[in-house]
């Protein structure tokens, strides 16, 4: 069974930083691209970023490009999202997501598997 547990969310002031982490189990982590998705209250689920299975390729939504950095540690089965220069529009529940294959596609896919989320609040 695929299990994806994200953590590291919290309350941060505008302009601040947070680092989200995700621990994966139940599949061969190094063979799959991984994504971060997010959903703000009252809004649709949104793709944020993807990293290929071997970390060679990354993609970012325009809204986070230059501020967020996705990374992974395959021996640790871990995925990360470094979020800098946060603004209130970044407030959402963030989900660690397993892609259906090794390629870093810049979108949500039907066969994505989303884990439990971690909430990020940006407020002064």
How is this fold's topology laid out?
Blueprint lengths: L2 E5 L2 E3 L5 E8 L8 E6 L6 E6 L6 E3 L7 E6 L4 E6 L8 E7 L14 E10 L2
Parallel strand pairs: 2-10
Antiparallel strand pairs: 1-3, 3-8, 4-5, 4-9, 5-6, 7-8, 9-10
Any key phrases for this structure?
0% helix; single chain; mainly beta; 48% strand; four-stranded antiparallel β-sheet; six-stranded mixed β-sheet; 10 strands; 124 residues
Can you put this structure into words, describing what you see?
This protein is mainly beta and 124 residues long. 0% of the residues lie in helices and 48% in strands. The protein contains no helices and 10 strands. The strands form 2 sheets. The chain has a 6-stranded mixed sheet, with no helix packed on it. A hairpin with a 6-residue loop joins strand 5 (46-51) and strand 6 (58-60). The mean pLDDT is 96.
What is this entry, summarized?
This protein is mainly beta and 124 residues long.
Write the H/E string, N to C: EEEEEEEEEE
Provide mean pLDDT, rounded: 96
Within the largest sheet, what's the order of strands?
Answer: 2-10-9-4-5-6
Q: Could you tell me the strand content as a percent range?
A: over 45%
Number of helical regions: 0
Structural class: mainly beta
Rounded Rg: 13 Å
Strands, total number: 10
What is the CA–CA distance across the termini?
Answer: 40 Å
Give the biggest sheet. 6 strands, mixed
Q: pLDDT below 50 for ≥5 consecutive residues: which ranges?
A: none
The level of helicity is under 10%
């Amino acid at each position: 069974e695929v299990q994806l547990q994200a953590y590291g969310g919290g309350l941060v002031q505008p302009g601040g930083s947070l680092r989200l982490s995700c621990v994966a189990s139940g599949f061969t982590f190094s063979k799959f691209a991984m994504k971060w998705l997010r959903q703000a209250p009252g809004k649709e689920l949104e793709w944020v970023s993807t990293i290929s299975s071997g970390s060679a390729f990354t993609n970012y939504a325009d809204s986070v490009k230059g501020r967020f950095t996705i990374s992974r540690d395959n021996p640790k089965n871990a995925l990360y999202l470094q979020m800098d220069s946060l603004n209130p529009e970044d407030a959402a529940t963030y989900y660690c997501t397993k892609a259906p294959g090794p390629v870093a596609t810049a979108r949500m896919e039907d066969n994505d598997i989303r884990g439990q989320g971690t909430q990020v609040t940006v407020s002064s």
